[in-house]
Write a structure and sequence with these properties.
single chain; mainly alpha; 95% helix; 3 helices
């Protein structure tokens, strides 16, 4: 689970670095076009910018889905683990009570007396 998150974070960092590089190239291209070629170049840069924005949007959507899926899987696994642990603990307690009923009663009386003493001292 931690490795999945780490790999996703590494992939995200790599993609962010690539996006930054593309943004720098786009800025350079806009600057060069504005200085030299005029209207057609500006339209071409606009088209590139729209393509880049589309790619960035797709990447962010994909990454957010991946993060949501990992979080959901982790939550489901944790809930399943807690349920299984609670079920096992309950079964062990029931078995212990069946195996030693007098000991269980003595422990319950002792805990009740202890709680009674603690609560009456206040």
């Amino acid at each position: 689970m931690a490795m999945r998150r780490s790999a996703a974070a590494d992939d995200f960092a790599t993609e962010v670095a690539a996006l930054k590089k593309q943004l720098a190239q786009l800025a350079s291209s806009i600057e060069a076009s504005a200085k030299s070629e005029g209207g057609d170049a500006v339209r071409a840069v606009g088209d590139k910018a729209r393509d880049f924005l589309s790619q960035a949007t797709t990447f962010v959507d994909s990454f957010s889905r991946d993060v949501r899926d990992v979080a959901s899987d982790s939550a489901h696994a944790a809930v399943s683990h807690v349920k299984a642990t609670a079920r096992e603990s309950t079964e062990r307690l029931e078995d212990a009570i069946r195996d030693r009923p007098l000991t269980s009663i003595a422990i319950a009386v002792g805990v009740g007396c202890l709680l009674s003493l603690l609560l009456h001292r206040r």
